[in-house]
Amino acid sequence: MTPSPPIKRIPLSRIDYEDTTYRLVPFPEDNEDSGLRQSIARVGLLHPPILLENFTDSFHIVAGRKRLHILRDSLAARDCSCIVLPQDSDTLSIFSILLEEILLRRTLTPVEKAVFFTHILQVVDREQAAQQFLPLLGLAPSPYHIQKMLALLDLEDQLLKDLHQGTLNEKTAHEMTRLPFKDRLALYETIKQLQLSVGKQQKLLLACRELSGRTRTAIGDILSCPEVQEILNHPQANPPQKSTNLMTWLTQQRFPRLSAAERKFKEFSTAVNLPAGAVLTHALSFEKDVITLSLLFKNENDFLKSWQKMKTCFTNELPPQ
Fold first, then answer.
1. Domain extents in the chain
2. Of 7-11, 29-33, 117-121, where does the model show the most confidence?
3. What are the residues whose beta carbons fall under 8 Å from the beta carbon of 120, sequence distance 6 or more?
4. 110-121, pLDDT tens digit by residue?
5. How far apart, in whole angstroms, are the C-alpha atoms of residue 19 and residue 17?
6. Closest CA to 188 of 217, 211, 155
7. Contact in structure between 259 and 252 (CB atoms under 8 Å)
8. What is the pTM of this model?
9. 3-class DSSP state for residue 208?
10. Residue pair 112/24 in contact by the 8 Å Cβ criterion
11. Residues 6+ positions from 191 with CB-CB distance below 8 Å
């Protein structure tokens, strides 16, 4: 068993807060965490940060950046008990410890996984990285997973931030890496404007991609057309209503014959002037000409009373299939 690194009392003034070598996000994060700050203020620091001793008598932050900022900036502390890694620690060991430290508390975000492997691949090949670390992330030890993770870092910063924060779906993000910039930006802005949930992000992407392939029109051009812009900028509609209207429009464009049949059937149903509690439905995707009439009754007696009048309209013959 590898011996545990020592815990030492370190002056906060000797820590290099500007160094981001071991930060697993490629953009600055908000260090304010009121819940963490209140916890430290109440009972002290329960989970020591991890530092790497530097040759210049200072320390790099490996883990615990938020905790250290709270101690220094909010609680005016002068020193802190930290786990200190020796200066000669190799990169593989440092990032292995960092990974274990994070996994003790939570899973890594897709962005953190990608950044983690950019560092690991500087010291080991992709096969070894896959064998050593992917099982810890709940994945099969295949280099393909690493390749997919790294592709996410080609996304723009704002998309990466939303992916890191969980407001952009990981599967959607992977598929967006294969889109041209204009299409990706248009899709992202629509997702943000409509505040789409994870499931609806996938539905929008699928609908746009299918319509783009069917009409040979770029997704960016589809989402910027006057009809879509009218839906997105409707002054009275809220985001869920706009989302429903947009998906309806996309469906109509993807399946024009089906949409025309739906409109024709709706007009027919309206013209029949059905009584309350009666509903007409058509066969799935109009694969058959069969129409179903559904009637709603308050109870059995209500049904029997109406049935005496209706049964003479029926025969024992089944409708043709």
1. 155-254, 274-313
2. 117-121
3. 92, 95, 129, 133
4. 999 999 999 999
5. 6
6. 155
7. yes
8. 0.77
9. helix
10. yes
11. 168, 172, 201, 204
